[in-house]
Amino acid sequence: MDTKPQSRRFYTGKVFLVFVLMAICRHIFAQATFLIWPIYPNIESNEKATAVWLENTGKSEALIQVRVFKWDQQQYKDNYEIQSEIIPSPPVVKIKAGTKNMLRLTRIMPAPLNTEQAYRVIVDELPIQLENTSSQNIAVNFQIRYSIPLFSYGQGMGSGLTDASIIANAKNPLAQPNLSYWTEKNKDGEATLYIKNTGSKFARISEIRMHEKSDPLNFNYVPLGYILANSTMTFHLSSQLAEGIRNSSQLYAVDSSGAALKVILLKRVGQ
Q: Does domain 179-268 have CATH number 1.10.357?
């Protein structure tokens, strides 16, 4: 199952996620293009649910399926599991062209005290064959998949995106990522950067720097992204970049998980 985050478009006042995957087939199917927002939904400790909007900007009706998976990171990879803690409503919906529909994500029970629970919301467009079409026609099957993160918080911790959660996090020393790193060769002999988060909140890393105010390191388009609470992720290094990092006693990461970008220290451990 391909659940990687897809490309984004940024608009004034709202952030939308747009992804269209096209494949040639023998039948004519409904053609739809979707906007989805917000792309960073949260359920704060004092909330039971949150809303996500789906807007069909295409020319045809679309059938949408919504699933929510538990998300963690094991063996340096994203892992998704079936869960019953967050329920999407409706789980399947038809959205007419030019209209939008509200998706409600409801938490069945509160998250444990001082915890951040991670999920992935997967939105798939299911093919709808149009009427009065011949199997001899050649057309395009538009199938859309969105994958957006969802975080649910227990009392004493929050997203850091609202005033109340910023105040709550300021009182809780656990409510932040705590990053460290080391380098070594992986099982294939490739130079690899390991970043470990021993904090209770995720980090969303957009850049890594040698110094707090230096230019970002060039990872040759390798995406950085999420390091969940109490997790470790790996990133391939070129030989030149590996040498520079091995000679450094610390690194800095730009974290975009809060209301504003924050430069955080990564302490070197191990070798």
A: no
* 206-237 tens-digit pLDDT: 999 999 999 999 998 778 999 999 999 999 99
> Which has the closest alpha carbon to 175: 161, 189, 188, 156?
156
> In angstroms, rounded to a whole number, what is the distance separating the alpha carbons of residues 84 and 159?
22
> How far is Cα of residue 267 from the mean position of the Cα atoms in its chain?
25
Record the tokens describing residue 36, joined without a space: 């989805």
> For 8-153, which CATH class?
mainly beta
Closest CA to 81 of 55, 25, 119: 119
**What is the spatial distance between Cα 271 and Cα 246, in angstroms, rounded to a whole number?**
9
Kindly report the CA angle at 151 between 38 and 207, in degrees rounded to 5?
75
pLDDT tens, position by position, 35-61: 999 999 999 999 999 999 999 998 889
Between the CA of residue 211 and those of 28, 247, 269, what are the distances in Å? 54, 13, 17
For the chain, what are the domain ranges? 8-153, 179-268
Neighbour count for residue 249 (Cβ, 10 Å): 6
